[in-house]
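FORM 7B: Structural annotation worksheet

SECTION A. Query
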Amino acid sequence: MRAVVQRVSKATVSVEGQVVGQIGRGVVVLVGVAHGDAQEQAEWLARKVAGLRIFEDSAGKMNASLLDVGGAALVISQFTLYADARKGRRPSFTDAALPEAAEPLVADFAQVLRDEGVPVETGVFQAHMLVEIHNDGPVTILLER
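SECTION B. Predicted structure
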């Protein structure tokens, strides 16, 4: 699994003109699932995101986690994180898991974040989404398990 974690001041996801998820301070997590990924990867990645120290503490250093600052997470499924564009100009997505394997793992990822104490909003799996991200910093971290 791969995740792009962006620290945000706020974020919104809409489907067909309707807001389906929104958060204030926190993180947007774009999650990609590969063939062979399992619940173990989803759990590890969610715990990593919850504890990732990318928020400033009282001294202005990146030393606080999402849990420390009471932030939320907006989780968006993103199969394109497994795009392979090494050959030609059209990316191949053969490394991305099939939807029936990916959807439950993205849901597991979101649930583990909730279990860790993070308020979570999500997009709609396989929908065309418009994601508005107010990247704070900007801070963007790539995680992989």
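SECTION C. Observations
The mean pLDDT is 97. The chain has one domain: 2-144.

SECTION D. Sign-off
Analyst initials: ____
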